[in-house]
Amino acid sequence: MSRQKKTDPRLWWLLGAAAAVSVLWLVATLGLIASTFGPEQRAQVLGLLGDRLALISLTWAAGMAVIAWGLKRWFDLWVTPSVQLAEEAQVLLRTDVVKPLQPKGNSETKVLVGLFNQLVTQREDLRREMDDKVREAARGIEQEKSRLGALMSELTQSVVVCNLDGRIVLYNNRARLQFRALSQSPTLADGAEMIGIGRSIYGVFDRQLVAHALESIHLRMARGAGSPSAQFVTTTRSGQLLRAQMAPVRASEAAPGEPALSGFVLMLDNVTRSFQEEHQRDQLMHGLTERSRSSLANMQTAVDMLALPDLEPEMRERFLGIVSEEVSAMSRRIADLAHTTTQGLKTRWPLEEMLGSDLLLAAQRRIEAVTGRSAPAAEVDASVWLHVDSFSLIQALTYLSARLVDEIEVRFLRLRLQSVDGRARLDLVWEGHAMSTETVMSWENDPMRFGTESTPLSVRDVVDRHGGEMWFERERLRHEAFFRFLLPLANASEQLEAAQILGSESRPEYYDFDLFQGVETDSDLDDRPLSLLSFTVFDTETTGLNPSQGDEIIQIGAIRVVNGRLLRQEAFEQLVDPGRNIPAASIPIHGITPDMVQGKPRIGEVLPAFHAFAQDTVLVAHNAAFDMKFLQLKEASTGLSFNHPVLDTLLLSAVVHPNQESHRLEAIAERFNITVLGRHTALGDAIVTAEVLLRLIPLLQENGIRTLREAREAAQKTYYARLKY
Amino acid sequence: MAHKLLIADDEPNILLSLEYLLKREGYQVTVARDGQEALEAVENDCPDLLLLDVMMPRKNGFEVCQALRADERFAALKILMLTAKGRDTDVAKGMALGADAYMTKPFSTRDLVAKVRDLLGGSAGAAP
């Protein structure tokens, strides 16, 4: 080792001191001896010694050499190893380097080295244990987070969690559907322009309203209320009525005097429909009381007149006319009332939306399990959505089947479902025997029994629960008979919602709890680190390359990246009718044919939705200048200016890998080993671009490019940028 | 001299009966089919008693009542409100706005005649 060869300066000092001392000692000894001599003797001795001075020097030098050697040995054995050991120990102490120290020097130092090594091992063990514990805890937290996310996503209540800035930290599928209904252009952005992780809830609710609710929660918390919550009802821009219940998210560690909140939970109910129903019910009540009273008054007075003994015949006719007119008006009113109440107001039992064919499938299985007879679902209208209590309805079907099999030995059962006149017809069909009305009545009204189990419900109760009807009918020609159930259909919007819930296969991630830590919203966007920004990564497909010469956008796809995560659920994808032909030569590139864009919205409708989707984010595209040109050319006609900050993954890639030949998206994706799916649809490309962006950010950081400003400046300086601008 | 009565109601069916009934009781009867018409009729005919329905087009009974009570000239006019609104809050409102009595539809004609006679100081119209 080179360090070992270097001689400790203290060795030189000691050696010098030894030399000086020995010279001094020699001089003092000689001087002392000389003082005892007379002058002649002194001259004589001087003469004698003077000739042998070289000899004296030689023995002195030899003596010094012995001393030097001794000192060196002593240093090597005692001092230098300690010094080196100290240095090496310093390294171990200050860094994470782990390596055993080499024993050296004298035996005591070697023992020390051994002790050092043991301490280091002990420290490492402790550290590893700690790391394990931390990792374990982190995994636990991660698990809990994802469990919570899963729970939320399955809830049928719509839930939105926000941090104190009103930024959305979590939302569930239901909330997404609800916001979709609030969106002014629900078919375009799928509501994703209103709800999204990191988006502000104030885009939907008035800030004052939320602030007021928060304040009342604060007050209640200050009073020490156990579960403080607040409620408000508000109308949204699209005219829907929402009831929101707000509960606090408490900060886990609040300093005394600090607000103990880190955010809030909103549970939302769209009460538009129930409000309308309420209103309708009010009107009915009004009709029943006030108008009937008037009618009764009219009749009563006329009847009183008719009772007069001296009534002229002509007047008698008129009063009779009044009575009969009022009677028929009353009858009409009551008929109307009955009609409306059966249409929806009557059912109070909580019913669920269910796809008819699913219900039949479940019923079929149950019937087969109980009776051992197959009950295939034939003639099923697959588009029928029911509004039912599926459990009790399947019980009723099973119960009737069991009695058919047990009591009249029916062998072939069949289920049938159609939608007729706004109601669903569910038939339980069998071949063979018909039955008497009395039998049907008793089957209908007996409490249902399954083996030894009995329920308090009868088939009639189940039917009533649905506000429906049920009867027995015979088809003589086909030698068949059936029980027919009339059941309510789910209304259109419920069908849609339920279909969407079923449609989402994998459990989507709708949360980012890191947002609770709060983002520095006060610092300028330009100075914020790239990893903390919200991006809208997008791509367009176009009819050609020259927007100024009439080329148009035919598809926009976009995806959000928030807090360094790609939010696949929050995507925007829309075909656009370009209002012109699509050149045949371009079709192989984007795969969009003229009939695909037929009937799609025009760019004037799509851009506002996209603008809302990209609000408060940084726009990112590959070769962004191209896409931006298309967007910016529409500014005059739509009045929307896309003045978002823009990043270009092509330029950023050139910043990170200046020596690579190609910065085409495919090439970069390959370099980063990104699996490319659905390339050359706008959304597919946007997703690849987003993946590229996520990998570029850490590489940019290594190059000292951390903030948005730095990234934009670096991009401007690249060769590619100079080529373009 | 016979008392003058004005009946204001938008339902022709009750109007016919009440007119017949009260004429038969010996009163001098005029009718109005909405609130505005009722106000004009009061101006022109200066009736002694107004049978006033609440639910009427143009001006409802409450408005008519309030307008009449704001006018000194009609201080002597008795107002009997007839209404299909049965809530006690409506009765309270009618009385507060200056009605002398309040009857909820449906009512018996005998009660009505008695109430009218009562309001007009016990004396009936000229006997038929």
3D structure, described in words:
The complex is a heterodimer of chains A (725) and B (128). Chain A is of the alpha+beta class. Chain A has 25 helices and 19 strands. In chain A, the strands form 5 sheets. Chain A has a 5-stranded antiparallel β-sheet. Chain A has a 5-stranded mixed β-sheet with strand order 7-9-10-14-13, with helices on one face. Chain A has a 5-stranded mixed β-sheet with strand order 17-16-15-18-19, sandwiched between helices. By secondary structure, chain B is α/β, with parallel strands linked by helices. Chain B has helices at residues 12-24, 35-45, 61-69, 88-96, 109-119; strands at residues 4-8, 28-32, 49-53, 78-83, 101-104. Chain B has a 5-stranded parallel β-sheet with strand order 2-1-3-4-5, sandwiched between helices. Chain B is globular, with a radius of gyration of 13 Å. At the A-B interface, α9 and α10 of A face α1 of B.
**Lateral arrangement of strands in the main beta sheet of chain A:** 2-1-5-4-3
Count of runs of 4 or more consecutive helical residues of chain B: 5
Unreliable spans of chain A: 498-506
Indicate the proportion of strand residues of chain A.
15-25%
Q: Describe the biggest sheet of chain A?
A: 5 strands, antiparallel
* Global Rg of chain B: 13 Å
Task: Decide which structural class fits the backbone of chain B.
Answer: alpha/beta
Oligomer: heterodimer
**H/E series of chain B, N to C?**
EHEHEHEHEH
Number of helices of chain A: 25
Q: Which pair has the most extensive contact?
A: A-B, 21 and 21 residues
Question: Which bin fits the share of residues in helices of chain A?
Answer: 40-55%
Q: What is the fold-level CATH name, i.e. the topology of chain B?
A: Rossmann fold
Distance N to C terminus of chain B = 12 Å
Mean pLDDT of chain B: 86
Number of spatially distinct domains of chain B? 1
Number of domains of chain A: 5
Structural class of chain A: alpha+beta
Biggest beta-sheet profile of chain B: 5 strands, parallel
Report strand % of chain B.
Answer: 15-25%
